[in-house]
Amino acid sequence: MTSRLQHDSETGTVTTRDGTSIAFTHYLNEQAPARLLLVHSLAMDRHFWDPVVALLADEASIVAVDARGHGQSDKPGTPFTVELFAQDMKEVVDALQWTDVVIAGASMGGCVALQFAADNPDLTRGAGLIDTTAWYGETAPADWNARAERGLKEGLGALLDFQKTRWFSDRFRDEHPEVVQRCIDTFLRNDVQAFAATCRMLGAYDGRTQLGKITAPTAVVVGEEDYAATPAMARVMHEGIPHSTLTEIPAARHLTPLETPEIIADHLRRLLGARA
User: What 3-state class would DSSP assign to 98?
Assistant: First the structure.
């Protein structure tokens, strides 16, 4: 599961309209006309996407972003919203002077990609909604707040057993402990206040009314065993987005860009070659 990135890369930051610095890595490919922007899952960072980037760097110019509150991006002590995260991605795209983009996100990043695609139909060439949902359900605000409060009171380490079994299938955890450990290390580096704010953001999000606004070709992808953002949740998105496909990955759980990067890269490759 190690990857070697073949193309030159550069790091950068964009300062958003509210003064927040958003960090990113740009994997340069001037010969490729397609452009791909990647948004990681909750409590991960831009390196979450390394295995997928390694498979697609010959085919697109790729930017992987640290969402606000994560990685090297600023961690402002203000409430987070998915709409705000999507606006951050728009400001990154604008700073790069990209006129169209395939945006893909996993879990939290999938919510952001969904909102971005709905808000920016003329800019969105394609959308990858991976291991995600438009809505976590009636009890989501209370459920996500409970997770936030536990992290604040007991520390992020108290959530690890809960996270590990959600992230990956039992077989993958046994066969790739190094990948699991990298996720643990990234998770524990998080600012707990920013983590709590992001949890509450996800609990409050309801993007169901946004689905019909997405006009770009969209790949909805979910692990068959994902019980964080379930196949049933993925089906709701697929049924609500006009030009979408739905794929369940057998025996995979919640972080399919790490568990099955070849499958995710293949779906994104199709989007990179598609037009709405």
Answer: coil
**141 residue type, one letter:** P
Contact 229, 107 (CB under 8 A): yes
Residues 6 or more apart from 24 whose CB is under 8 A from it?
11, 12, 13, 14, 46, 63, 64, 65, 66, 92
Task: Residue 38: name the closest of 272, 215, 235 by CA.
Answer: 272
* Contact residues for 12 (Cβ-Cβ < 8 A; gap 6+): 23, 24, 25, 26
Angle between helices 192-204 and 82-96 (to 10 degrees): 110
Other Cβ atoms closer than 10 A to 229: 27
| Longest Cα separation, the chain | 50
Which tens digit of pLDDT belongs to each residue from 192-245? Answer: 999 999 999 999 999 999 999 999 999 999 999 999 999 999 999 999 999 999
**Residue 44: is it exposed, middle or buried by C-beta count within 10 angstroms (0-12/13-18/19+)?**
buried
